[in-house]
Structures are given as structure tokens and as C-alpha cells.
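Field log, afternoon session.

UNIT: design team B
ACTIVITY: writing a sequence onto a fixed backbone
BACKBONE:
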């Protein structure tokens, strides 16, 4: 099992990498979700909008200390658990192709696990 500091750093890396991808390469992420970006490019804006936020909250896990870091790690559990529920609901509703929905749900669940491990103190 990962220690809290390792989990926190890993989750920060996941956030920075995924946020940067959303900000700089939204088409890549949309295609991975099964979107034909030659027909539908509407997801680029939300990927960019949330990408910059995701980078910033990832940096929080690397740079904050003390009570600010404890608050950020507690909030990470809520953020990633909500992401997991959202991905699962999207999959069940059929809003994403089944395979891509299951992958998104799995990735979000791993992030939730990292958040829980990071919040242990």
C-alpha cells in the first residue's frame, strides 16, 4: 500500500498531466472517449476550462504545506469520488461508449484510491 506522501505526489502528477492534456490537447482526450472530433468539437472548451483548474489543484498537492495541504488532501477525496460517480453514471446512461466509460470509471476510481491514501494521516 502507498504511503500518504507517495499517494499525494502521485495524485498531483496525475492531475497535472491530465489537466495539461485537457488544456493543450483536448481533441486527444475526446477521441479517447470515443468522440469523433471531425464531427463534434464541442468538448474542447470544457476540457480546457477544467484542464487549467486540474493543473492548479495538482500543484496544490505538491506545493502546499501544513493545514492548507491537509485541507487539499481531504478535498481530493470528495473531488475524485464525485468524478468516479459521475463517470459511472455516464456509463450506465450510455452517454459514453461502454468500453470508454468503464475505462473512465476505473481511472477515476484509482484516483479516488490515491486521494484516500493521501488523506490518511
Amino acid at each position: 500500500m502507498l504511503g500518504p506522501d507517495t499517494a499525494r505526489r502521485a495524485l498531483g502528477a496525475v492531475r497535472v498531466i491530465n489537466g495539461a492534456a485537457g488544456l493543450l490537447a483536448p481533441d486527444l482526450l475526446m477521441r479517447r472517449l470515443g468522440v469523433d472530433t471531425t464531427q463534434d468539437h464541442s468538448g474542447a472548451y470544457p476540457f480546457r476550462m477544467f484542464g487549467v483548474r486540474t493543473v492548479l489543484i495538482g500543484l496544490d498537492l505538491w506545493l502546499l504545506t501544513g493545514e492548507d495541504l491537509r485541507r487539499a488532501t481531504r478535498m481530493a477525496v470528495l473531488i475524485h469520488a464525485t468524478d468516479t460517480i459521475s463517470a459511472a453514471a455516464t456509463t450506465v446512461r450510455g452517454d459514453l461508449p461502454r468500453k470508454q466509460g468503464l475505462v473512465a470509471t476505473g481511472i477515476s476510481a484509482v484516483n479516488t484510491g490515491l486521494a484516500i491514501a493521501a488523506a490518511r494521516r
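LOG NOTE: The CA atoms of residues 80 and 112 lie 5 Å apart.
NEXT ACTIVITY: expression trials, pending approval
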